[in-house]
Write a structure and sequence with these properties.
By secondary structure, the chain is of the alpha+beta class. About 45% of the residues lie in helices and about 20% in strands. It is built from six helices and seven strands. It has helices spanning about 40-55, 90-110, 115-120, 120-130, 145-150, 165-185, and strands at about 10-15, 20-25, 65, 70-75, 80-85, 135, 135-140. Helix 2 runs antiparallel to helix 4, helix 2 (about 90-110) packs across helix 5 and helix 4 packs across helix 5.
Length: about 180
């Protein structure tokens, strides 16, 4: 049984042809089991991703055991989101993490989650991923919280512009009100 907080080994987004859109592999040096020896090179990672894509390219299941790792995945138009964990990881926790990430991305991209939109907004997608998983540790599983932390602040359209004209208008208004009060007395 794994009692470590490090539960995610990798996060991947692959397109409909199996090409990498985003990939983040985790196993920090401070991990209790030491630095990862799994998939140390880019060639090994690409081979793993290609084989994983071959097994999951058709929608159907959500969780598979592939190459001694638990892979939780979700299809979205022309993309497939993956969270990879150890074989003994809690698949419900991994699935809820993937669901939260996916829902947050849908909120941020206004349900236009396709390869082009993800690449155009890669900064927000990466921030979303960092708010969800930190060095292989799941830190948030609520999609609205993730999206609110990542979303860009909206431009304030009620911003008051102060210039000479607005100051003169305010002065005139105050002057008229004072004259009306004096006349009432």
């Amino acid at each position: 049984m794994n009692l470590s907080l490090y539960s995610v080994n990798a996060f991947l987004i692959l397109d409909s042809e199996g090409h990498r859109v985003l990939a983040k592999y985790y196993r920090p040096k401070g991990h209790p089991q030491g630095e990862s020896k799994d998939l140390p090179t880019l060639k090994d990672q690409r081979a793993f991703e290609k084989g994983l894509w071959q097994k999951t390219k058709k929608p159907g299941a959500d969780i598979i055991l592939y190459d001694g790792r638990l892979a939780v995945f979700r299809h979205s138009l022309d993309l497939i989101f993956y969270i990879i964990g150890g074989a003994t990881e809690n698949e419900i926790m991994l699935y809820s993490t993937l669901t939260a990430f996916s829902d947050a991305v849908h909120l941020l991209l206004r349900n236009q989650v396709e390869k082009r939109a993800v690449l155009e907004n890669l900064d927000m997608v990466l921030l979303c991923l960092d708010e969800t998983i930190d060095d292989g540790i799941i830190v948030e599983t609520d999609s609205t919280t993730i999206a609110s932390r990542v979303s860009r602040p909206k431009a304030d359209t009620t911003e008051i512009v102060i210039n000479e004209q607005t100051i003169m208008n305010a002065y005139q208004t105050v002057r008229e009100k004072v004259q009306q009060r004096i006349q009432q007395l």
